[in-house]
């Protein structure tokens, strides 16, 4: 018995040592990976996997350490992290666990309730389908035989089986959760519902047609705004027949909330385009003439010869110096970031002013900062090697200086 106990203790000690070393190794890998550049999706997948691995090893370690002997003092427990309370608005499904008998097992007297222990855990149901049955009673007049019934509202898909809630589920899963239709097909099959991917694709097409009037209305409202933002981002698109993907683009057009957000709420519209050509922005904006904030992509230049006023985005200029500072710790980048931060502090102070008062405030507080930055960049540029990252960041800012400082002329224009 003693030998078996000693063997168990030795095994547990070795296992605890091994698991402790494994936890330390995983934390080193996790810390080292934070300094690596990584695609955001890969980063999320790595973080999830690493967290799961750490949790599994720590659980094993805690299980081994739990039955500490009386002779060995238990280590001082670390304070457990405070768990956020479960959302109060969620419904509570209560299950009561009563003793088998309400009489005392020792003396047979009746038990009296003195309190209760309550444990709450977050739970969920798998995707739950149901059939929505709409009934329209018909009534007739005995005198004149007039038949009365509530008219059936138009459906998104005529004679289709999908209710609006299911259509919304399919669309959100595809476009927000990035679940391809073939995966949704398998998910729904697990709930006992057969929905082929061809059917799901037809539904997606019908949803697009049904939403088009809303998109058109949003576009009309967007083009009534005096200041817009435009940017474009590449997306990989399947290229049937070639077995690979091709590069397409989503052009994003945004209008910030106006002085009265209730009358002019923020709007963002995406326009799918097969290429990055500036003709797509021309087509989308049409006869609109206003102030357009862009990042310097040359495809927009043709717009600024036809009455549209170009605004530069200080967030894009800042990103150049931020990336440089992250990569090399450049003191020049740090100085630029400090100067740009001062411009944003001016904007924060003027946030609640009217457009006219904001313009005056910028002229008084931001204009001197911009003048000093221009003098500093002009003096610095000849001292910087032409192919360096510092030169590229400075050149981007100086090349777009007129557009970047144009927000001083109109209090309704954003800084970026």
Automatic annotation (TrEMBL):
Residues 159-415 form the Transposase IS66 central domain. Residues 74-84 have a biased composition (Pro residues). Residues 65-86 are annotated as: Disordered. Pfam families: DDE_Tnp_IS66 (PF03050), LZ_Tnp_IS66 (PF13007), zf-IS66 (PF13005). Residues 18-94 form the Transposase TnpC homeodomain domain. Residues 102-145 form the Transposase IS66 zinc-finger binding domain. This is IS66 family element, transposase. It comes from mine drainage metagenome.
């Amino acid at each position: 018995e003693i030998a078996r106990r000693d063997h168990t203790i030795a095994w547990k000690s070795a296992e605890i040592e091994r698991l402790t070393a494994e936890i330390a190794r995983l934390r080193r890998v996790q810390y080292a990976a934070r300094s690596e550049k990584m695609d955001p999706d890969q980063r999320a997948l790595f973080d999830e996997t690493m967290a799961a691995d750490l949790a599994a090893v720590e659980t094993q370690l805690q299980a081994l350490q739990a039955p500490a002997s009386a002779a060995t003092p238990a280590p001082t427990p670390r304070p457990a992290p405070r768990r956020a309370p479960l959302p109060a608005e969620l419904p509570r499904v209560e299950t009561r666990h009563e003793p088998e008998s309400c009489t005392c097992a020792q003396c047979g007297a009746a038990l009296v309730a003195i309190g209760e222990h309550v444990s709450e855990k977050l739970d969920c149901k798998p995707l739950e389908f149901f059939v929505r049955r709409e009934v329209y009673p018909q009534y007739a007049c005995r005198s004149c035989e007039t038949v009365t019934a509530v008219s059936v509202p138009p459906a998104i898909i005529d004679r289709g089986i999908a209710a609006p809630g299911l259509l919304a589920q399919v669309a959100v899963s595809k476009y927000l959760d990035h679940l391809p239709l073939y995966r949704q097909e398998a998910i729904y099959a697990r709930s006992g519902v057969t929905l082929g991917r061809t059917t799901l694709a037809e539904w997606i097409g019908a949803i697009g047609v049904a939403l088009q009037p809303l998109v058109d209305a949003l576009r009309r409202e967007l083009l009534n705004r005096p200041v817009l933002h435009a940017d474009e981002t590449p997306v990989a698109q399947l290229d049937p027949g070639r077995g690979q993907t091709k590069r397409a683009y989503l052009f994003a057009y945004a209008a910030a909330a106006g002085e009265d957000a209730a009358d002019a709420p923020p709007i963002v519209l995406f326009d799918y385009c097969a290429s990055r050509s500036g003709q797509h922005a021309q087509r989308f904006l049409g006869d609109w003439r206003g102030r357009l904030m862009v990042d310097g992509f040359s495809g927009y230049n043709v717009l600024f010869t036809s009455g549209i006023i170009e605004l530069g985005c200080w967030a894009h200029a800042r990103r150049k110096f931020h990336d440089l500072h992250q990569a090399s710790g450049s003191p020049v980048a740090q100085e630029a970031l400090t100067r740009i931060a001062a411009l944003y502090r001016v904007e924060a102070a003027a946030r609640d002013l009217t457009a006219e008062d904001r313009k005056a405030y910028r002229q008084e507080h931001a204009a001197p900062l911009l003048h000093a930055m221009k003098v500093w960049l002009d003096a610095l540029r000849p001292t910087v090697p032409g192919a360096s990252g510092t030169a590229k960041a400075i050149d981007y800012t100086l090349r777009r200086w007129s557009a970047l400082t144009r927000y001083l002329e109109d209090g309704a224009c954003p800084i970026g």
